[in-house]
Amino acid sequence: MADSRLLCVLADIPDGGAISRHVESATGGFQIILMRRGRQVFAYHNECPHQGRHLDYVPGKFLIKNAQIICAAHGATFAVESGSRISGPCSSGLVRFPVQLEGDEVRLA
Ligand code: FES
Fold first, then answer.
1. Is the CB of 88 under 6 A from ligand 1?
2. Alpha carbon of 16 to ligand 1 centroid (Å)
3. What is the pLDDT tens value at each position of the chain, 109 positions in all?
């Protein structure tokens, strides 16, 4: 039986980069963003607070520069470590998603 709490291993996320994962739910599931800095992993719903669009420019590919993730739709920027809005056409930040690192495995918290 597959381990439903396991999202990926740390090496799946490029250091300084991001990947996406699908999380199952009773309503069909949703996408999250997993960003990495060293051994720290930051997870957020893949939903921009501006118009609710995914932040990736193609599925699973994200724009990250100077510790900020940039929404590919209209350029809103958010801090990788907090999800806080830095600039752009929205008034709030990204919604954090609870994950934890167990050894080298990234898991649902
Ligand atoms: S949907 Fe992200 S900036 Fe508009």
1. yes
2. 22
3. 467 799 999 999 999 999 999 999 999 999 999 999 999 999 999 999 999 999 999 999 999 999 999 999 999 999 999 999 999 999 999 999 999 999 999 999 9
Instruction: Look up tokens 């997870």; give the residue.
Output: 43
Residue 78 · residue 84 · CB < 8 Å: yes
Give, for ligand 1, the residue of 48, 85, 86 to mutate: max count of ligand atoms closer than 8 Å to Cβ. 48
Q: Are 67 and 59 in contact (CB under 8 A)?
A: no
Mutate to test the pocket of ligand 1, among 45, 47, 50 (most ligand atoms within 8 A of CB): 50
State both tokens at 101.
Answer: 């690192």
**Domains, the chain:** 6-108 (2.102.10.10)
